[in-house]
Every structure is written in structure tokens, then in C-alpha cells.
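Students often ask what a holo structure prediction actually looks like on paper. The answer is less mysterious than it sounds. You provide the chain, you provide the ligand, and the output is a string of C-alpha cells encoding the 3D arrangement of the protein together with NAP.
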Amino acid sequence: MAETKTALVTGANKGIGYAIAAGLAAQGYRVAVGARDDERREAAVAELRRGGAEAFGVRLDVSSDQSVAEAVAVLDERLDHLDAVVNNAGVSGPTAAGALQDPLTLDLDVLRADVETNVLGAVRVINTALPLLRRSASPRIVNVSTDMASLARRTGPIMAAYAPSKTMLNAMTVQYARRFAETDPGILVNAVCPGFVATAFTGFSGSRTAVEGAAVAVRFATLPDGGPTGTFVDDGGTIPW
Ligand SMILES: NC(=O)c1ccc[n+]([C@@H]2O[C@H](COP(=O)([O-])OP(=O)(O)OC[C@H]3O[C@@H](n4cnc5c(N)ncnc54)[C@H](OP(=O)(O)O)[C@@H]3O)[C@@H](O)[C@H]2O)c1
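The corresponding C-alpha cells follow.
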């Protein structure tokens, strides 16, 4: 019998992360729901289980070294390998009505907070989980980005903290892809954009459902061997950097 596939999804208690967890569970993955709030996490796990998923919760705040170390220690106890890590947890930071993170008046603490979660959070999780990923036959890493991070496309409102933090996440994705190509060519790492999704993040104003937004992350978390790495994509294909 084939070994059960396993995945960690960060920020999986709601929104796109929850839908990614559900999508991977639907493909037979045993899913670790990484979330920082105990109540929201356990509610999400219960809901996933009601839907037939094999899911369990892991307390995880990606902005904390200690929390990430503790979460991976729990995974290490419960799983013998990790097939996929989806770095979905993300924050935009406060935005003022009519002047969305104006670079001219940017609060540096907002910029710091976005980088801490959206960039350092992903790096923390990847590097800490790497030994578990290396025990998989086909490890996959997905970094949930946004087309607002595209320097070429310049799309969406001006968000001088959020958008550049995701641009850096994209840059880190390329660094990881290059590095893995040297010593871990089986590890595929990609950045994906879910599109404009109706979640708390967008005040539920997005045009896509969380399930639609999650689809590209699920696809890249389950890539076949020899699939793309170091790319930036959405449902429509490659996004220019
Ligand atoms: N919605 C869109 O249109 C859109 C478009 C492009 C990209 N994205 C990206 O998609 C990802 C998911 O966004 P979403 O729309 O699903 O937003 P969401 O509903 O606000 O969900 C964000 C998730 O991230 C979690 N999170 C935030 N900081 C965290 C931390 N330090 N540690 C652990 N978890 C943390 C949140 O947990 P709490 O519940 O505890 O706050 C929540 O589970 C984000 O990376 C976002 O940048 C979204």
C-alpha cells in the first residue's frame, strides 16, 4: 500500500489556507493545520474532519522562531516525513482608507511586520521543516504570493509594505530553487498567486472563492516529479517577475 502523503499548511484556520488544507485532504493527504489561535485552529480541524479529512492541528505562529521550532517538533513526533509545505500565512498590515500604504508616509513598523510574517515566516518554516521534507520522496514547497508582487505588472492598489514583502518572498523562492538544484533537486519550490479572493484579507470583496484561490497552491503542492521549480504562477500560467 502506498504511504500516506502529508502536508503542512500555515495559516490554515480560515480563508485560502483552509481551502488548501481541504483540497490536499481531498487528494488523500494527511494535513497539519498550522494556526496561531487555538480556538480557530481546533474549529478548522473539526470542520475538516467532518468533511472526511485526515487533519490535525499544530500551534504555529510563523513570526516566532520558538513557535516554528515547537510546531516542527510536533510534526516530527506525528509524521515520519513531510511531502508538502504550503507557506500561506500572510498579513497585509493596516491600510488607511483612500491611501493604501502610501510609500511617502509609510509606518516602518507596518513594513517590518509584513516582512516578518510574509518573508521571514516562510524562511523559518522551510528551514526548520527541511529535515522532515528531505525524508519525503517528492518534497514540494509552495509560497503563497500575489500578482501585486510583480515588479513588471504593477497591479492592484499601492501597498508599499505588503506588495514588496511578497516581491521578496518571490525572490527567496528563486534563491531556494537555485540552492535545492545543487543538493536537493527533488525539492520543487514555487510561488503562486491565488487571484483576488473573497476572504477576511480583502474584506470579502474578492471575485473568487477561497476554493478557486486555493486550486493553484494545491496543484503546485502535488506536482509530479520533474515538475517546474523557481516559478511564479497563477491559474493563467506564468506571472512576470
Ligand atoms: N485574498 C486575496 O485576494 C489574496 C490575493 C493574493 C494573495 N493572497 C495571499 O493568500 C494568503 C492567505 O490569505 P487569505 O486571503 O486567506 O487571508 P485570511 O483569510 O486573512 O487568512 C490569513 C491566514 O494567515 C494567518 N496568519 C497571519 N499571520 C500569521 C502568523 N504570524 N502565524 C500563523 N498564521 C498567521 C491567519 O491567522 P489568524 O486567523 O490567526 O489571523 C489566517 O489563517 C496570504 O499569504 C495572502 O497574502 C490573498
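The radius of gyration is 17 Å.
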